[in-house]
Amino acid sequence: MPDIVLSNVQKSYGGGSPNAVSDLDLHIHDGEFMCLLGPSGCGKTTTLRMIAGLENLTDGEIHVGERVIDSPARGAFVGPEKRGMGLVFQSYALWPHLTIERNTDFGLRLRKVPKAEREARVEKVMKALDIEKYRHRYPSQLSGGQQQRVALARMLAVNPGVLLLDEPLSNLDARLRLEMRAELKRIHAEFRTTIVFVTHDQWEAMTLATSIAVMSEGRLQQLGTPNDIYDRPANRFVAEFVGSPPINILEAATTHALDRAASHWLAGRLGESAGVGSVGFRPEALQIARSEAAVPGGSFRHAAEVTGILPTGGSWIIELKVDGRALFATTTESPALRGGERVWVHVRPTAVHVFDAAGLRLAEADDVLARAA
After folding, report:
1. Is the model's pTM score more than 0.90?
2. Does residue 203 sit in the same domain as residue 221?
3. Which of 241, 275, 310 is the last residue of a domain?
4. Residue 21, Ramachandran bin (φ over 0: left; ψ between -120 and 50: alpha; else beta)
5. Which protein family is named in the record (predicted)?
């Protein structure tokens, strides 16, 4: 399948309401597993539906290779049935009166694929998804995870160039979601189908995607690999949305002791006129020492009180407070700490994220802090 390119895409439903999608430029490469990630109402499902042809653009263009599939300015629109894409909804939409085999070959029958080829394709995808043993059962006789596999098999059987998935795992319990994530990874590796996956679950995006497009209020906030999104968030929204527990944020313009200490520490490295609005550091980057003397030189540091230790199974969340302000640290080793203990928290310079007053990342600060490490 050629690359899919969205150029200055706009979607408005009129009535004076804000655009559902604004100024969206997105390049989805052939064979890519892209996740559209963001909170409810951010425009991610609308974007998927525009790619599928279920929504018309208000402005802009969508290209598949050299082919224009939607362009209001050119009067061009290719119907969803002619785009060579498969769509899997949050609800599995299986036919309850058809067996699993008949659900799987439903699209092939509509396309009048010859029987021998149809049976060969169905057999291949059913084996790949481990559902061939259920071929004579009906959807009501399967678990949610098994029904999800059937919905995926039905789409893969018609061999679409692009597989569009709209929060397909949200109805599953935690264990089935984990199994299906692994299944989707394997499907992508085996079939090399381009996948566009909508989710509000950051861990689904981080574990599945080769690239993530983070959206908010109809606008693209950042496009990058999972590591890019997590390690170098483009703005404060991305930094706060991705990560659990969430990133610790200190404000530059307050008089709180912790904020003033961070501002003073940064001013010594970036200068007073650096334009810092806020500072962030991930919980796993926040280290704890029992004395100030044990803190590595050059690190940001402050005295704190341990107020809670929360085991999560395999890791621990440590809650600390500085004059009523909560901070969170995480560790994979059982912490030898107790509630009420006074400690020193510290963060190395390279683990500090610096944002300006508008919430944009101060990229120049990264280089300065890297040299100071």
Report:
1. no
2. yes
3. 241
4. beta
5. Belongs to the ABC transporter superfamily.
CB 156 within 8 A of CB 163: yes
Helices (H), 13-88: 44-52
How many C-beta neighbours within 10 Å does residue 340 have?
A: 8
Asked if residues 103 and 68 have their Cβ atoms less than 8 Å apart, the reply is: no
Among 282, 320, 279, 284, smallest CA distance to 302 is for 320
In which residue are the tokens 């307050």 written? 254
Q: How confident is the model at residue 116 (pLDDT cuts 50, 70, 90)?
A: very high
The Cα diameter of the chain in Å comes to 77
CATH number reported for the structural domain that contains residue 230 in this entry? 3.40.50.300
Which among 365, 241, 358 is positioned nearest to 300, based on CA atoms? 365
Residue 314: give the domain boundaries: 248-372
* Lowest-confidence region among 82-86, 244-248, 276-280, 340-344: 82-86
- Reported as a single tens digit per residue, the pLDDT across 219-231 is 999 999 999 999 9
Residue at a domain's end among 175, 207, 241: 241
Q: Do residues 59 and 8 touch, judged by C-beta distance below 8 A?
A: yes
Structural tokens at position 91? 């609800």
